[in-house]
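Reminder to self: tokens first, then the designed residues, so the page reads top to bottom the way the pipeline ran.
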């Protein structure tokens, strides 16, 4: 891997662009990423790893269930995708399979290497390392994805209105008939009421109390995120509801197909940390469904924005 004058390297067929890389990885899950990189460098069987290793970062980055989020979705023929915050590439391969070309933006050089080795045979993938707010792109895309990204806008966008300004910035790279795809936790997700800590801060009830201790990472309720998106020009919104959440979805409901009584599992675990069970979630979900407010208490949102 030799860096040329344009600060580009190739890992087999994948182009890795370091022109906007500051030299510092701005986001990481720690040393576990070194292990994940070695897994893909050495073509180790992922199923074998998952059968032996129950650490949350391993499950989150490697579990094939991650693909369920968008495997069902029909992308337009010949389309282009900008994947912002690609992580370790859990969805990147799927996007490459379903679209003509994919450009990933990732804050971490190590994560970019993981994505590249994971998808080394893909000839329609480019990875750009850096903060999207400081990257200049010369094209527009049919789709832009923010999967587990929007909640970090406050951390990586240094303006008075970081969420709105971040969305306005990336909207410049979306074609007029393009679609922005967002996956994010619901701040009012039922699991937070029933004993699960907030995903990002690890504190109980933090999101439903509107983050009194934290403004660095925040999620939104349905009305909040709808208003934010409309304020920046997305007026046509289709909401979907992954269960148990967008990270490891088993079911995906929509406003046109909401769950019926009895369809939600008895108990939804937290894989990243221990959680309490303060009440029977299935019974409460049944009551919520009966009162037609499932969309307000679903654990996650998947939103297609036009």
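Designed residues (306 positions):
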């Amino acid at each position: 891997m030799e860096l040329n004058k344009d600060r580009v390297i190739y890992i087999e067929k994948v182009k890795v662009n370091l022109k906007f890389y500051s030299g510092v990885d701005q986001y990481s899950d720690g040393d576990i990423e070194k292990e994940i990189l070695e897994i893909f460098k050495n073509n180790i069987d992922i199923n074998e790893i998952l059968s032996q290793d129950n650490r949350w970062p391993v499950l989150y980055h490697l579990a094939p269930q991650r693909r369920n989020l968008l495997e069902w979705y029909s992308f337009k023929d010949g389309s282009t995708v900008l994947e912002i915050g690609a992580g370790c590439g859990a969805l990147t391969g799927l996007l490459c399979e379903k679209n003509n070309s994919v450009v990933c933006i990732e804050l971490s050089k190590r994560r970019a290497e993981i994505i590249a080795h994971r998808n080394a045979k893909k000839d329609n993938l480019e990875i750009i390392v850096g903060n999207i707010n400081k990257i200049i792109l010369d094209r527009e895309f049919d789709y832009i994805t923010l999967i587990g990204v929007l909640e970090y806008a406050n951390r990586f966008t240094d303006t008075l209105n970081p969420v709105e300004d971040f969305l306005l910035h990336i909207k410049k790279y979306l074609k007029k008939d393009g679609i922005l795809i967002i996956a994010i936790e619901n701040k009012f997700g039922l699991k937070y009421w029933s004993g699960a800590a907030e995903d990002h801060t690890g504190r109980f009830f933090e999101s439903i109390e509107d983050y009194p201790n934290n403004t660095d990472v925040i999620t939104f309720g349905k009305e909040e995120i709808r208003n934010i998106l409309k304020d920046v020009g997305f007026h046509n919104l289709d909401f979907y509801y992954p269960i148990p959440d967008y990270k490891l979805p088993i079911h995906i409901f929509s406003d046109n197909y909401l769950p019926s009584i009895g369809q939600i599992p008895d108990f939804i675990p937290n894989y990243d940390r221990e959680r309490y069970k303060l009440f029977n979630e299935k019974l409460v979900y049944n009551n919520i469904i009966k009162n037609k407010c499932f969309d307000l208490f679903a654990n996650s949102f998947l939103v297609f924005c036009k």
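The beta strands are 8-11, 14-17, 80-84, 101-106, 125-129, 141-147, 174-185, 237-243, 251-254, 300-305.
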